[in-house]
Amino acid sequence: MANTELTIGYDDGDIETNPSTGPSLQDLVDQRYSRRQALRGGASTAAVAVFGGSLLAACDDKVEGIDNTPPVVGATSSGATSAGRVVTLTGTATDDNAIVGQTFTQVSGPTVALSSTTPGTATFIAPAVSATTNLVFRYTATDAKGAASSSDITVAVAPPTLGFAAVARSLADTVVVPTGYTASVLYRLGDPLNGATPEFANNGTDTNYAARAGDHHDGMSYFGLAATGTAPDANNSLRGLLVMNHENISEQYLHVAGVTAGATRLTSEVVKEMECHGVSVVEVTRSSSGWSYVKASPLNRRITPYTPMTFSGPVKGSPLLFTAYSPDGTNGRGTINNCANGHMPWGTYMTCEENWAGYFRRDSGDNARRTALIGAKSTQAFTRYGLSQRSGNYGWTTAAEATAGSTLIGKFNATIDPSQPVSGTGDFRNEPNQYGWCVEIDPYDPTSTPRKRTALGRMNHEGACPGRAIAGVRPAFYMGDDAQNEYIYKFVSDTAWVAADATATNRLAMGDKYLDKGTLYVAKFNADGSGEWIALVFGQNGLTATNPLYPFADQADVLTHCRLAGDAVGATRMDRPEWTAVNPATGEMYCTLTNNSSRTPANVDAANPRSYIDPKVNSTSRTTGNANGHIVRLREAGDTTEAVRFTWDVYAFGAGADLDPTNINLSALDATNDFSSPDGLWFGSPTNASGQVTPVLWIQTDDGAYTDVTNCMMLAAMPGSVGDGGTRTITNTGVSATSTATTRIGKAPGTTMRRFLVGPVQCEITGIESTPDGRSLFVNIQHPGEGGTFSAPTSNWPAATTGARPRSATVVITKDNGGVVAL
């Protein structure tokens, strides 16, 4: 019988019908627990894994189709810092997925440029600030599924301060820089400037210096070059043009066995010596291995005493410039004894002719002939400029011309030929008047003709430093006349500054615009700390044909003989005015007064208050007068370059730390910053922290008074402002007389001035400029071993080989961590 019972059952469908391979619940539990167990503590593993969003807010986004927690991140910095120093930001991220993105962004504070070459790190240069300022940065990490987390970092940045330990005085034959810095040789005497010129042998056989680096590297500027290599880029710190002066020569090292003896010079030797003078334009680049010069650059150029020049400004075409080469007085040949310089706001280089007078020959009897044929006025002017009857430096004019009929050597013989026209168109009686000018060069155009800017006056031009260029204000250019008891000058353009002219393509035309018309002034320093600029303009301030000192004929006469004009108006005789520099933050102008052996207790004044005996420590010799020099500074009335009045004080007096603190070491210098004979002077560029807020002032020395203790040096300082000190009355003790003087002295520099560099034996430290970012500093080492002979050199620098002939050279200084130099 069949079973008819109804069996009642229930099927819940719990059978395997899903063929996919997705994770099971246990898989999810295992996965989440292995990743987050340390963060969950006692929470239920399964519940946290599946429902993490409700139990742990950090894990509420989705990944792998179920959920995704963002990376766990942390971020730190290298700590609080000050302006110009390198700051490193470091971020860390952990995640069970790959980290595919790490970024740093600035949230607040002065904007900086972040740089990163390694994931999770970024660096920047701390900006210049006037008070401690917080900069905030955000580190963000992103994983492979798009989840991201961020963490903020706060970096406190303090105002700029000097950031190196002072180097000790040194007599070693090397370049000494602070710990954490490197000085590398970049461009040396004789280095070839094209591929056709052989490498330098340095044994006296080398020739063709018109295609090599010249000697005695001096004033220098850096001009940024675009990546194309054919156009300016003022902000490029990796590629540019160095333009530098070659002031003079160490002739004993240029020839095989020194200068060949004899009554006449060898033409080949004279040509070599002349070509070593002038200016270099040389391309330089920075790669991962450092700086180098580009030997085959089409922009490389040498300017020598042979290079054609044109005159511009009020003296152009004056009979004072008539020569056999240029009967109309509009052209000339060459520049010589180029010392300091100026970096013009429109991107040109100003080279300045300093001790040019000594190169000229004037035979015995020339004064009498000159007086008889031209008049006593001409002889008086020559005498005032040191153009005495003499054979001329190095006896060049005794050599025959390299090319028959040429006058490239003969032009330095200014002796009157009485058979030639009185106007001077048949000889070179007026050739000295073609020297002593500021010469403007366009570094970007190797075919351009340099222009001698006569509106800036004729003197022993040390430099021509522009004041601050402010739109709508007439710019000024400050100059020293480098000789004992000479003057400080200022040229103010007739044309107000137009900011767009900074990037003009016709750069020499900008020079025409701003430098050919204006007013030349000379400085008078008053004992009460005030001063005035006296205009040197024909018809004003007694500068007329009836002047009892010198009868001026016209403005060309005033400018060609501005020393005589300064005498006539009562300018202040200074202790060898050399380099000028303008503080980019305040506009104050500083001028080095290198020394003055003719300053006696009887003729001191408020601005030149010292005359004393400075004994040598290693001998019985001594120096007298103002042996160690000082640095004067002035602030224009209303802080404008157009001012005709100023206030002044002495920023720092050079002295050995061991000298009398009451009457000589007035700036309380010590072993970390004592110096003598300040010469080169330059403020950090306003394009970086070394030229902002409290700009760095670089001071270079050209000394003979303290070299028994140390070689010449370079110091870095952060000056205050005019008037930050007080007055001081000092007693001067000379060889046979005493006197007192009251001066105005700035606050003692203390730790805000430190010795940064000491050079090799018998050198001068001179010439300086940085890249726009301030992270590479170019400095010139001039005439190392100048007292030696070819067979017994007193220095071998920059070679490390005993017996090697020394060479003037440019060094580039960098901070090992990449920061701004000095900060």
From TrEMBL:
The organism's place on the tree of life at top rank: Bacteria
Span list, region Disordered: 1-23, 601-625
InterPro entries found in the cross-reference section: Ig-like_fold, PhoX
Protein name: Phosphatase
